[in-house]
Structure formats: C-alpha cells, structure tokens
Amino acid sequence: MNATQTDLTRRKLTTPRAAAVAGILFALLYGASLVLIRRSIPADQAADTSWLETNSRTISLALNLVPYAGIAFLWFIGVIRDRMGELEDRLFATVFLGSGLLFLAMTFVGVALAGGLLASYAIDKSALLAGGVYTYSRAVMYNIINIYAIRMAGVFMISLGTIWLRTGLMHRGWAFLTYTLALVLLLSVSYSAWVPLTFPGWVLAVSVYFLIINFNQGGTATK
Questions:
Q1: In 3D, which of 112, 19, 18, 108 has the Cα closest to residue 69?
Q2: Is residue 150 part of a domain?
Q3: CA distance 72 to 66
Q4: What is the pLDDT of residues 176-205, one digit of tens each?
Q5: Contact 117, 138 (CB under 8 A)
Q6: What are the tens digits of pLDDT across the range 140-154?
Q7: Other residues' Cβ atoms within 10 Å of the Cβ of residue 42
Q8: Percent of the chain residues topping a pLDDT of 70
C-alpha cells in the first residue's frame, strides 16, 4: 500500500471517530444542560421569580455547560462536512451549515439572556422586577431558545437527512428517521418543554452509529 492509499485509509477510519466523539460530547453536555434548566426554571412564563434564588447554582452550572457543547457541535459539523467531501451538495450543504450555525448562535444568545437575568437578580432584585424587565427578558429568552433555535435544529436535521438520502453516505432508514424527528421539533416543541431533548438524542444516536462503523472498519482493515 503506497503513502496516498495509507493517508486515505487513515482519513476514512478517523473521520467517523472524530464525528462520533464530538457528537457524543455535544449530546451529553447539551442534553444535561437542557435537563438542568427544565428542572430548575418553571415552564409557566407567568411564574414568580423564586426560581432565580432557589435554583441559581443549578442554572449557572447548566449555562456553563453550553459553551463547551457549542464547541463540540462546531467540531461535529466540520467533521460531517469533511466526510461528505466531493459528494457535498452546495444547496443542502449551505442550508445544513447555515441552520447549524444559527441554532448555535441563538442558543448562545438565549443562554446569555438567562445569565443576564441571574446576574441582574443578584445585583438588584427590585430593579429587575420593576418596569417589566424580568417579564420581557424571560419571554425573549424562551422564544429564542424554544422556538427559533430548536426549529433551526429541525432544519439542520432535515438538510442533513436529505444529503444522506442523495449521497448514500448513510442508510436510508437514518434519513427517514431524521425526517420524522425533525418534524417533531418543528411542529411539537410548543406542546412539551422536553421535546427539545429530541435533538441531542438524535445526535447521540448518530454519533454512536458512527463509532460502531469506525470500529467495524478498523477491524476489517486489520484482518
């Protein structure tokens, strides 16, 4: 085997593993953050502000996990695109990349607003509650994270599922499962605060599948 073939084999074996590791890290960190936030912040936007005091440490922990989840998600996107190589469709690749970056950007904005609420409450409780600042900030935070960011995650899934279907890089069953879960995010997110967990769950499943592929290919290559 010459040097070029060796490099290609190494790239084929390591790229799925890199995607798997990045995806698993994102799924665990982002999923843990969502669970902590959902358990600490009441779903009812009209609820009182007691959660700002009683659950502030838990919420701070959840917010601090998000930047690391974002780094892992960027790595996941990059490795997925690298795996597509010359098969990448410009139209769907643009939607895939754009929706992924928008999801991440809006998630960061929503998390920054939540952090701002905690900091403002710690500095001056009365100023936060006066003039509707708390109510407005809470509504904006909810809309950004639970409506816009999560729906961008759904678009991300649909575009990647379409790329898989057109290129054959993944089994057709994964593409159809991705479509189904994406529709859940796009249409059902307002019915339950736990629906957004569908996204990290999907990323985790895909990443584990990549890891299994990598080990199988590695085992075949060593025979």
A1: 108
A2: yes
A3: 10
A4: 999 999 999 998 876 777 889 999 999 999
A5: yes
A6: 888 888 889 999 999
A7: 13
A8: 83
Q: Is residue 1 part of a domain?
A: no
The residue assigned the tokens 């985790």 is 204
Going by C-beta distance under 8 Å and a sequence separation of 6 or more, which residues neighbour residue 149? Answer: 102, 103, 106, 107, 110
Q: What share of the chain is helix, strand, coil (3-state, %, to 5)?
A: 90, 0, 10
Closest by CA to 161, choosing from 170, 151, 148, is 170
d(CA 41, CA 53) in angstroms, rounded, equals 11
Q: Does residue 39 or residue 203 have the better pLDDT?
A: 203
Tokens 């001056």, located at residue = 124
Whether the CB-CB separation of 208 and 190 falls below 8 Å is answered with no
In whole angstroms, give the CA distance from residue 222 to residue 133: 62
Least confident of 32-41, 43-52, 55-64, 183-192: 43-52
Decide if pLDDT at 83 tops 60. Answer: yes
Residue 155 lies in a domain: yes
Do 210 and 25 form a contact (C-beta atoms < 8 A)?
no
Cβ neighbours of 138 (radius 10 Å): 19
Please check whether residue 3 lies inside any domain of the structure.
Answer: no
Say how many domains are in the chain. 1
In whole angstroms, give the CA distance from residue 96 to residue 101. Answer: 9
Full domain range(s) for residue 33: 9-221
Backbone φ, ψ for residue 196 (5° rounding): -55, -20
